[in-house]
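PROTEIN DESIGN WORKSHEET
SECTION A - STRUCTURE
LENGTH: 106
TOKENS:
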């Protein structure tokens, strides 16, 4: 069963620069094991815990645009032709320090 996986720029060093890779597995966990056999170290960036049974809290995984946290997490089922997107969580922002950016400043 072939699954297309979209890899973010920050993790492409594990895929030889490829933004789209193919993997197999009937669950997200099985897919990650398969991907790690071809792209060593990738799985370690996606799961946490000694046994690798938890999704890293700063990584979002989507199966056909559905967050796996609502599909059973790493046990989420996959079908042939599914598209999995790996998306690192983004937080923070920038502070506008230009004059007048905050009320009362000139």
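SECTION B - SEQUENCE
RESIDUE ASSIGNMENT:
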């Amino acid at each position: 069963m072939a699954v297309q996986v979209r890899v973010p720029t920050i993790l492409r060093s594990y895929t030889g620069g490829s933004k789209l890779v193919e993997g197999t597995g009937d669950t997200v966990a099985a897919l990650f094991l398969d991907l790690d056999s071809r792209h060593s170290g990738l799985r370690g960036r996606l799961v946490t815990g000694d046994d690798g049974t938890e999704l890293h809290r700063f990584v979002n995984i989507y199966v056909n645009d559905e967050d796996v946290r609502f599909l059973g997490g790493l046990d989420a089922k996959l079908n042939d032709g599914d598209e999995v997107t790996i998306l690192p969580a983004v937080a923070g922002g920038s502070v506008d320090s230009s004059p007048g950016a905050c009320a009362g400043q000139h």
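SECTION C - NOTES
The radius of gyration is 18 Å.
The chain has a mean pLDDT of 87.
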